[in-house]
Structures are given as C-alpha cells and as structure tokens.
Amino acid sequence: MLRVLALSAAMVASTAVFAQNIATVNGKPIPKAREDAWVEQLKKQGQQDTPQLRQQVKDQLIQREVFMQEV
Questions:
Q1: Which of 35, 34, 30 lies closest to 57 in space, CA to CA?
Q2: How much is the pLDDT for 41?
Q3: Is residue 30 classed as helix, strand or coil in its secondary structure?
Q4: How far apart are CA 70 and CA 59, in angstroms?
Q5: Is 26 helix (H, G, I), strand (E, B) or coil?
Q6: What is d(CA 61, CA 11) in angstroms, rounded to the nearest whole number?
Q7: At a CB cut-off of 8 Å and minimum separation 6, what does 29 contact?
Q8: Contacts for 24 with CB less than 8 Å, ≥ 6 apart
Q9: pLDDT for 25 beyond 80
C-alpha cells in the first residue's frame, strides 16, 4: 500500500515538473513562463490569447532555441 502511494506521489510530482516546460530542445527546456511572457506582450498589442496563438509562440520559441544552439 505504501509503495502504491509513493509511486502515485512521484507520478504527480513528475507531472508538475513537466507542466512547467512547453518543450525541450536537445535536452534544454523551454519554460512555460517564457511562452506566457510573449503571449502577454502580444495581448498588449491587441492579439487574442488563443490556442492557435500559443502554438505559434511555442513554434517560434522552439525555432529560436534551435538557432541559438546551432550558433
């Protein structure tokens, strides 16, 4: 019983860690906070916070990270 509880707690904890990153590029995580900050800037420019916008931001962040790693 204790083993099941410990395993469940570990699974919940690991899910929380993964939820903080939107992607990982070659082992380097891209934090959700970076996506949120960019979306906030776009909202100030009149854009709506939609799943499509977040996907575009995520794609751009991944592309930038790949570029930075190649440099």
A1: 35
A2: 97
A3: strand
A4: 17
A5: coil
A6: 27
A7: 20, 21, 23
A8: 30
A9: yes
Q: Which two tokens stand for residue 40?
A: 């906030």
Token representation of residue 63: 């592309």
Contacts of 42 (CB under 8 A, 6+ apart): 49, 53, 57
Q: What percent of the chain has pLDDT over 90?
A: 72
Instruction: Supply angle C-alpha 48, 54, 55, rounded to 5.
Output: 130
Residue 28 confidence (pLDDT) above 80: yes
CA distance 39 to 23: 16
A 10 A CB-CB count for 60 gives 12
User: pTM score > 0.85 for this model?
Assistant: no
Contact 23, 61 (CB under 8 A): yes
Output the six-digit token pair for 49. Answer: 């916070």
Cα separation, 61 vs 67, in Å, equals: 10
